[in-house]
Amino acid sequence: MRPGETRKLTVLAMLSAAAVVCNILESVYIGPLFLNMRIGIANIASLIALVLYGKKGLCTVNIIRVITAPALQGTLFGTAFWISLAGVSLSTLTVLLLDPQKHSLLFLSICGAMTHSLGQVLAVALLYRQAAMAASLPYYILLSIVTGLLTGTAASLAVKHLKPVLRRY
Amino acid sequence: MRTFLQKKELIMIALTVVVCAVWILVLRRPKHNVTVQIVHGQEVVREFHPDEDALYHIEGDCGGLDVEVKGGRWHVINEQCPNHICAHTGWASPEDMIVITCMPNDIVIQVSEYTYETR
User: Fold this and answer.
1) What pTM does this model have?
2) Taking the domains of chain A in order of start, what are their residue ranges?
3) Residue B94: CATH number of its domain
4) Inter-chain touch B110–A36, beta carbons under 8 Å
5) Shortest alpha-carbon distance between residue B119 and chain A (Å)
6) Contacts 24+ apart (CB under 8 A), B56-63
7) A169 to chain B, minimum CA–CA distance in Å?
8) What is the value of ipTM here, to two decimals?
């Protein structure tokens, strides 16, 4: 394995671990801010992976996070897992379809947050066969813009400080 | 990759905000004959009218919860679930149409029927 690949593997492993820890910490200690919506601090690690290693980096961190966090919490394959999976899948797909080279990190973060909420609402509507869930959607989308801005800003600040450090090793 | 929002992106986000705001305004129109459903799994376990104050205990997969109906609004109390997300959701009303979900108990509380007020 070349040194560059080792470094990439190490950084992605650390980002995945950070995403899993953030996911668990948020669900246990921070909780929902308004309605039952969380900030999604784990997305910061995913966005950093997107900037540093492109679409593959984003997919790697998101796949590891969406499986490992519920596995550690004992909720793997429960209702909450499928809802989380729907949100992460739709948001990842959205960022993959939007060209990261043409759009800003903040825009990708906001779009990802909005489609994450959309995916979760769709999953709840399908699992419970409740079309009335759509009534909550505008609230979630508006809140997603705020959370997307927060996570996008945090990710861009983190990347700004991480890039010089990574260049050294 | 650029960090800050471009003009086109700002316009798209502003449009989304406007669409959501209009959607919320339409949803918040005064309603009549409101019926609220409490669903456990996929079975409707109770229906109530929010204009009648009451307290309902609902059995769920994780011990259940109580739904308090007061002054035309309803919320979850005494929830026996690990995250308490259902209680954090707060009060729901016919105007905001918020759906309260409790995943560990597999319970959903939502408006099922209503008619809009006509002038």
Assistant:
1) 0.83
2) 3-168
3) 2.60.320.10
4) no
5) 24
6) B58/B105, B58/B107, B60/B102, B60/B104, B60/B105, B60/B106, B60/B107, B61/B104, B61/B105, B61/B106, B62/B102, B62/B104, B62/B105, B63/B105
7) 22
8) 0.83
